[in-house]
Amino acid sequence: MEKRVYINMNLCTSCRSCAAACAAGHQGQGHLKHGHIQEKASVPLHCRHCDEPLCLNVCPQKAIKKDENGTIVRMRNLCVGCKSCMMSCPFGVMLPYSTWHTSPKCDLCADRLAEGKEPRCVATCTSGALVFEELATIEKKYRRTAEGGRYFTRFTLPR
Question: Of 20, 30, 152, 159, whose CB count within 10 A is highest?
Fold first, then answer.
């Protein structure tokens, strides 16, 4: 079962409660980045936990692995903060700063997943813009188009 965080950009209010929850749950080091769309909206950018992650392939320390659920996990004890993963990510979701000599990366709140809970960002999203569902359900439920093997969500910008 592969679950992912889906962002409905039509519902996001840019409140950043997701980022605050992420930082609070990771000893003050948030793993969530925000992007700006035409200076009209700010939306959370999550790791997409790719089928064939470039970050995993470029890591010289082998500090990134893919677990049995398809989650891309960074092992902090092996990461040296070289930022190769950040430079290789085509979605720009790896954070550009490093703390504790590691590059921060979304881990889908592995501690909460082990308890059967959803990631912190989803649990605190007040607008319902973030959902955590199986990949197959997300693809059926939300209109998506495939271009070159990657999925892009259709959305409208707030006026």
Answer: 30
